[in-house]
Structure formats: C-alpha cells, structure tokens
Write a structure and sequence with these properties.
The complex is a heterodimer of chains A (179) and B (173). With 179 residues, chain A is mainly alpha-helical. Helix content of chain A is 81%, strand content 0%. In chain A, helix 1 crosses helix 4. The two termini of chain A are 32 Å apart. With 173 residues, chain B is an all-alpha fold. In chain B, 79% of the residues lie in helices and 0% in strands. Chain B is built from 7 helices and no strands. Chain B is globular. The termini of chain B are far apart. Chains A and B meet through helix 1, helix 3, helix 4, helix 5 and helix 6 of A and helix 1, helix 2, helix 3, helix 4 and helix 5 of B.
Chain lengths: 179, 173
C-alpha cells in the first residue's frame, strides 16, 4: 500500500483546512480524491461513513483515519495539525479584530447577518443528508423521534441516543435487508 | 477548580458524545458555555458562531474562540485540543475494527442507524440555535432563504455568508 510522509499529509490537510469555507468536507473530497489522488472516491466514502458514526468533529476524524492509514500515528498527528493550525491562526486574528471593533453597530449587524446564514447552512446540511434517506422513508421515523426528543422534550443527548438507538438499529436492519 | 482545567475536562467529555459532529451539538455547547459554566454570554456565543462560520476551516472553531475568550492563545489551543483528542484516539482504534468487520451487513446497519440519528441531531441543532441567535423576523427570513438557496442552487456558501454580512451591515437584520 502507498505510504505518505507526515510532511505530505500535513500539506494536503493544510490545503483542506484553509480552503474549507462553510464546511470542510466537500473540500476534503476535492483535495484527497480529485487533486492529490490519495484515495479513490469509494475509499473516501467508506472512510467518511466511519468518521460520521463516531463522535467528535467529523473532519478531525477524517484526518486521523486518512493520516493513520498512510503514515501511522505520526501521519495522523501530521494530518490533524495540518488541518487545524492554519484555521486557528486565522480565526484568532479575526478574534482580535472582533475585540477592537465589536462595539460598532455595523459590525454587530454584520455578525447577526452571518450567524443567521450560518444556521441556515447547518439546517441545509441536515436536509441534504435527509434526501439520501428517501430510498427508505421508514428511517424518517428515527429522524422525527430524534427531533421531538431533543427539541420538544429537551432530553439530554445521552437519553436521546439511548431512546432512539434501538429503533434506529431495528429499522436500519430492515433497510439493509430491503436494499 | 481552575477554569482552564474545567474547560479542558468539560470539552473532552463533550468530544466523546459529539455524535454527528460539532454542529449537531451546538445547543449542548451553548448550554454548557452559557448557562452552566458562564464562560461567555449569549451575544458573545452568537458572535463567535458567526466568526467561525465566516472563517475557513473546520466547524469546531466556535470552540477555539470560546477558549480564546477564557485565556487567550493558551485557552484557544487547549480548547481545540480538548475537543479533538478523545474522539481522535477513539477513531484511531475503531476504524481498524470497523474496516475489518467480516459481515458487511452489520457495517451497513451501523452506518444507516448512525446517519438517521445524525440527521435528527443536525436539524434539531439548527432549530434550537436559531431560537437563541435569531432575534428578528428578518433574521429568520434570512435563515429560511439560505436553506432554500442551498437546496435549490449550487451557490458557494461563501456568497451567502457575504450577502448575510452585507444585509447586516446595512441594518436589515
């Protein structure tokens, strides 16, 4: 199997981190599959599938998976550092600007506008993921139950997972048999 | 308990329950940072959320900024490390296990159920965060407009962020 040096991984993931406006995952696919040709499209989807079922920041998980696969523990470390160092530096510069100018009405307004768009972007990620479930609509029961448990009854996350997981696994089993 | 230690411990625990990624759990983070620990107030949380959205990079930058608010660069690095290390170590070992699963069926079942759960969490997260940070009808309309445009067109999110910022500067939101 192909191996990559920690330096190569660091550079690839730096590119991903620095270009990831409004979500890094699409850029991860573009960089790893299309530009740097480290992974095939199927490999990428399989790895991403695993990263999304494990808790934690999804992109960070992706960096650990891809990094460790091509360069062991050092590769994983290089990939995660590459992914996060540049963006951290940028966001801290923005934080400094915020500290100096947050009293301005126009800055406050700008941030209100951006956060309203940001919420919309998160919601549309959810809706896009939901389109994949159209193949087996019974899974919508799980989605609906999760939403009701979390927003109507304000259950803590642990309870939501405990409550919904058995139904999710039951339906997922049926879905896997049906497709 | 020193505030840095509590930041580190609380965010490390948060990392291990963050199913569906950080955005799915923004309400939990909000509750922790604003209501329980009083690290920041509501306004600062929503401003940091906006800055994190406008900056490039992974979406856990809201957490980096909360750390920065508490103790400058040290706090920022500590918070980012805290959110990343438990789940990173978990997936480092889990990925071999899942990749090596002999039965493709059980792999599918795990993926399908986790995906459905994640969708529910992401959508409830967007709903609850909207309730916290949108304070006007115009802000809700902007949120709904964003959803419609991203679902119906292939516009780059950066344009939407720029439009939102511009509308805000002009005083509409």
């Amino acid at each position: 199997m192909q191996t990559l040096t920690p330096k190569q991984l660091f550079i690839s993931f730096s590119k991903i981190g620095m270009s990831g406006f409004g979500g890094v995952l699409p850029w991860a696919r573009r960089t790893l599959v299309e530009r740097d040709k480290i992974l095939t499209s199927e490999e990428f989807s399989a790895i991403l599938g695993i990263c999304q079922i494990v808790p934690g920041p999804n992109v960070m998980n992706l960096a650990v998976c891809v990094g460790s696969r091509f360069g062991g523990a050092r590769g994983a470390l290089a990939a995660t550092l590459g992914l996060s160092l540049g963006p951290i530096a940028i966001v801290l510069c923005l934080a400094l600007l915020y500290e100096h100018y947050s009293y301005l009405e126009s800055v406050k307004g700008m941030l209100r506008g951006i956060s309203a768009v940001g919420v919309g972007l998160i919601a549309s990620t959810g809706f896009k993921m939901m389109c994949d479930e159209l193949r087996y609509p019974a899974m919508f029961i799980v989605v609906a139950l999760t939403i009701i448990a979390a927003t109507v009854f304000h259950l803590g996350l642990g309870y939501v997972v405990l409550l919904v997981a058995p139904i999710a696994i039951f339906l997922a089993r049926k879905k896997a048999q049906a497709l | 308990m020193s505030i840095l230690l509590s930041l580190f411990l609380k965010l490390s625990a948060f990392s291990l329950v963050a199913f569906g990624g950080v955005n799915a759990l923004l309400p939990v983070l909000f509750n922790l940072a604003v209501n329980q620990e009083h690290w920041i107030d509501v306004q600062t949380f929503s401003d940091y959320f906006a800055i994190a959205q406008a900056a490039p990079g992974p979406n856990f930058m809201t957490i980096t900024l909360i750390g920065w608010h508490i103790d400058g660069v040290v706090g920022a690095l500590l918070a980012t490390f805290a959110i990343a290390w438990p789940s990173s170590i978990l997936i480092y070992f889990l990925q071999r296990f899942i990749m090596g699963m002999k039965n493709p069926m059980s792999k599918q079942v795990i993926q399908y159920s986790a995906a459905a759960l994640a969708i529910g969490l992401v959508l409830s997260s967007a709903w609850e965060i909207a309730l916290h940070i949108n304070h006007s009808l115009a802000a809700y309309i902007l949120t709904l407009g964003t959803i419609a445009i991203t679902l119906l067109t292939r516009w780059h999110p950066l344009y939407l962020i720029a439009i939102g910022g511009a509308l805000g500067v002009l005083g509409f939101i």
